[in-house]
Specification:
Number of helices: 4
Mean pLDDT: 82
Structural class: mainly beta
CATH class of the largest domain: Mainly Beta
Low-confidence stretches: 67-76, 167-181
InterPro entries: Rgp1
Radius of gyration: 29 Å
Strand content: over 45%
Largest sheet: 7 strands, mixed
Order of helices and strands: EEEEHEEEEEEHHEEEEEEEEEEHE
CATH topology of the largest domain: Immunoglobulin-like
Distance between the termini: 4 Å
Helix content: under 10%
Protein name: RAB6A-GEF complex partner protein 2
Length: 386
């Protein structure tokens, strides 16, 4: 028996354009002491070959037309790995298989370790589990004994989208020449050149850290309901969306308010027909407040780490928004009592109206380590070949 172990040393979360590293170990466990080998050749365990590659599979609704199906140029359908895959999803991205070894022989207690490295394409879609479309990533390790079926070890990974504008800006900065036309000093430390991915993360940090308060006056046909302030329009995974409501400017009573963090998933069935779009609204977190009589209140809405930031492909586009629901009333008996009023009593019946409003926001990725620490996932996967 041979045990195959795949370990992700830096976690299971990666950014598009990042290099994935996986440590793959092949081990022959020692035989029990009472087992007697029939011959010298029985002591060894052998494998004919082993290879590894990254797969991205797309699972879509059957109604989506074949015009949107894209097979990447790097997809290899005629390899032994592809022939052994029985998944129903369409292969969206498949990197070129890398051969780990050929004709491996292990004696009892012996192990062989290989390091698999592969870069995720910059234009690859992110990991996403929507209602209409799903993108799933995995590292597929395939191996085979002579005259035996191929055995596959699948290691799931998560890929986060990185805005293409950030990557393009980082590449430009890396290509700029900043060397001074002065004699080289051998006693000065050589400054390491920053990688485009690191510069892209710095741009992401700068965009999401900027405070740019925006004020919105919320009104209906009867008058002003509230004044809402959102401190910034761009957020990262794991952050809190913070805002404030000001009811001192209101001419209409606001009895309660609820705010939901929602994503809008949109797919196109037929690119020639605008009416063939499918849209799904998914709610993740919600803030509810009964605010009758309040002058001010605040909004704190956490962004989960397991959601997917905004992205767009030929098949689906994902956008994020804040969805507001205000319960208002023009009943005169809801006037706020003064400081001297001690016998104020709320009316038994109140006519209400509900108004809704959606505010788009920008949601970006964060550092993979932050996501990996917040979502505990198994990073070691094993396969036994008998």
């Amino acid at each position: 028996m041979i045990e195959v172990t795949a370990k992700l040393p830096t976690g299971h979360v990666f950014l598009s354009g990042e290099v994935v590293e996986c440590i793959i170990t092949f081990a022959h466990p020692p035989s029990p002491a009472h087992k007697v080998s029939q011959s010298h050749t029985d002591v060894f365990e052998s494998l004919a070959w082993a290879s590894a590659q990254i797969h991205c599979q797309c699972f879509t609704d059957s109604k989506i037309s074949k015009e949107n199906e894209r097979v990447d140029q790097l997809t290899y359908h005629h390899t032994a790995l592809g022939a052994s895959t029985s998944d129903s999803g369409r292969i969206e991205i498949a990197t070129k298989p890398k051969i780990l070894f050929c004709d491996l022989r292990l004696s009892p207690g012996q192990t062989k370790t290989y390091i698999y490295r592969e870069k995720i394409p910059n234009d690859s879609p992110p990991s996403y589990r929507g209602q209409l479309v799903k993108y799933s990533y995995k590292i597929t390790v395939g191996t085979q004994r002579v005259n035996s079926p191929v055995k596959l070890l699948r290691v799931p990974i998560r890929v986060l989208p990185l805005c293409e504008a950030f990557l393009n800006e980082a590449v430009v900065l890396c290509n700029e020449t900043t060397e001074e036309l002065t004699p080289a000093n051998p006693f000065l430390e050589i400054r390491q050149k920053q990688k485009p991915l690191d510069l892209a993360l710095q741009s992401l940090q700068n965009i999401t850290a900027r405070r740019n308060p925006n004020f919105y006056m919320i009104t209906n046909m009867w008058g002003k309901v509230a004044r809402f302030c959102l401190f910034k329009p761009a957020y990262k995974l794991g952050e809190d969306i913070i805002g404030t409501f000001d009811f001192t400017v209101a001419t209409v009573h606001c009895m309660q308010v609820s705010v939901s963090l929602q994503c809008e998933e949109e797919t196109i069935i037929d690119s020639n027909n605008e009416n063939s779009k499918q849209v799904r609204i998914i709610t993740f977190s919600k803030h509810h407040e009964v605010c009758l009589g309040y002058k001010y209140t605040q909004l704190i809405l956490p962004i989960p780490l397991h959601v997917t930031p905004a992205f767009s492909t030929k098949v689906v586009s994902l956008k994020w928004r804040l969805h507001f629901e205000f319960v208002t009333s023009t009943h005169k008996g809801l006037a706020t009592p003064g400081t001297t009023d001690t016998d104020w009593q709320a009316p038994s019946e109140v006519t209400i109206e509900t108004m809704v409003w959606s505010l788009p926001i920008r949601l970006y990725s964060t550092t993979p380590i932050h996501v990996a620490q917040g979502l505990q996932t198994n990073t070691v996967h094993k396969l036994s070949i008998r």
